[in-house]
């Protein structure tokens, strides 16, 4: 089996001391300020002068801001996270110009996850302990799994989510062995009642993580709505609500990781649909269920794991009528409303709607792969 080097991030939880928590809070605030001010400067330059500002220009601005008596506090944290904030802004503009995302938005305190990225010159890794620049003590990390032996982290990202939890993501370059080739191929049909239906006939049940905690979520939201704005009790209620959301997100991510790892390990080729989730969530009747299913994240997991382990993910055209096409004879049914879960073709074949779609996805995926055209349609 061949081995190849890939960049892989290992995420751990850590518990900062009061002094470290204060330093990190200050760093997060400076990162947010630099991002917002640079965004404001770039927007002003374009609207008033029709002039584009790039990363190099904002980097020079950052140097001036550090010398300004009103913002001299920007020199207190490490320079690495502040420079990375400007790079992130440049990346956001690049995606906007390529029409992949909307215009960059300002970061609001308490409304998004705080994070700061440190490169190798801004932290030390020695004897299994990490110490950030301008910190007097190493971080108290819970090593839930060991880092690969003999690797040196190239960068670390510390973050604090809205539930008040601190995490560190450690990026290393690791040699990963590809899985042994297998003959198995599979088609995967996404759904709501069953999260995924496989061409083998297996149906993966939908855990409905958000629905399971919906009562707890509603209670936390109701308690928050009754608190006085700006009070300490409101902050506590907001934290309690964030913890419920974090619980839901953690369980969803864990389930998708286990499922994607299993499919990549067992199959050489995985065929999926190129779904336009962004357009599908505009249906207000299904938006909550579709968001809870997290189809886009599952596809991303399949793709990067397949790339690691020598597998192939094929995305077929989203407009292919996989549900209406008979997997036995290839005839396309005239109409097939969503409430029809089982149908009979004129050839006599009786189909389960989802299993039939998965079989067609598998067949079309293999055909597309053989033709060498349209293997991965562009994602919306």
Number of helices: 10
Overall helicity? 40-55%
**Which residues sit in consecutive blocks of at least 5 with pLDDT less than 50?**
374-380
Cα-atom Rg, whole angstroms? 25 Å
User: Any idea what the shape is?
Assistant: globular
How many E-type strands?
14
Briefly, what is this?
Helices cover 42% and strands 20% of the residues. With 380 residues, it is an alpha+beta fold. It folds into two domains: 3-177, no CATH class; 185-207 and 262-371, no CATH class.
Structural overview:
This protein is an alpha+beta fold and 380 residues long. It has two domains: 3-177, no CATH class; 185-207 and 262-371, no CATH class. It has ten helices and 14 strands. It has helices at residues 18-49, 55-67, 79-97, 209-212, 214-225, 232-266, 277-280, 287-293, 295-309, 353-371; strands at 3-14, 114-119, 123-126, 129-132, 141-142, 155-160, 166-177, 185-190, 194-198, 203-205, 269-273, 312-316, 342-344, 350-352. The strands form four sheets. A five-stranded antiparallel sheet has the order 2-6-7-1-5. A hairpin with a 2-residue loop joins strand 3 and strand 4. Helix 1 (18-49) packs across helix 3, helix 2 runs antiparallel to helix 3 and helix 6 packs across helix 9 (295-309). The two termini are 35 Å apart. Mean pLDDT is 91; it is low at 374-380.
């Amino acid at each position: 089996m061949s081995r190849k080097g890939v960049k892989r991030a290992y995420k751990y939880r850590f518990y900062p001391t009061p002094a470290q928590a204060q330093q990190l809070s200050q760093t997060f605030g400076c990162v947010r300020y630099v991002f917002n001010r640079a965004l404001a400067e770039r927007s002003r330059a374009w609207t008033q002068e029709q002039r584009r500002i790039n990363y190099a220009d904002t980097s020079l601005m950052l140097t001036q801001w550090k010398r300004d008596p009103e913002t001299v506090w920007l020199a207190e944290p490490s320079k690495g996270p502040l420079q990375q904030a400007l790079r992130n802004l440049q990346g956001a503009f690049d995606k906007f110009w390529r029409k992949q995302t909307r215009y960059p938005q300002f970061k609001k305190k308490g409304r998004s996850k705080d994070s700061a990225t440190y490169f190798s010159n801004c932290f030390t890794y020695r004897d299994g302990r990490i110490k950030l620049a301008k910190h007097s003590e190493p971080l108290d990390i819970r090593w839930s799994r060991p880092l690969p032996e003999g690797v040196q982290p190239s960068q670390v990202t510390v973050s604090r989510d809205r539930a008040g939890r601190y995490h560190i993501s450690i990026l290393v370059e690791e040699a990963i062995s590809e899985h042994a080739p297998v003959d198995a191929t599979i088609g995967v049909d996404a759904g709501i009642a069953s999260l995924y239906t496989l061409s083998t006939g297996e149906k993966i049940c939908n855990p409905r993580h958000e629905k399971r905690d919906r009562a707890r979520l509603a209670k936390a939201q109701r308690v928050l709505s009754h608190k006085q704005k700006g009070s300490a009790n409101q902050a506590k209620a907001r934290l309690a609500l964030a913890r419920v959301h974090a619980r839901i997100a953690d369980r969803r991510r864990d389930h998708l990781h286990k499922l994607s790892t299993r499919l990549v390990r067992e199959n050489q080729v995985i065929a999926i649909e190129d779904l336009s989730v962004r357009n599908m969530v505009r249906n207000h009747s299904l938006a909550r269920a579709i968001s809870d299913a997290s189809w886009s994240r599952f596809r991303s997991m399949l793709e990067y794991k397949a790339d690691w382990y020598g597998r192939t993910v094929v995305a077929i055209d989203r407009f292919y009528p996989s549900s209406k096409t008979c997997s036995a004879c290839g005839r396309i049914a005239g109409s097939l409303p969503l409430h029809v879960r089982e149908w009979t073709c004129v050839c006599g074949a009786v189909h389960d709607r989802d299993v039939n779609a998965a079989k067609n996805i598998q067949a079309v995926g293999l055909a597309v792969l053989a033709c060498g055209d349209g293997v991965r349609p562009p994602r919306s």
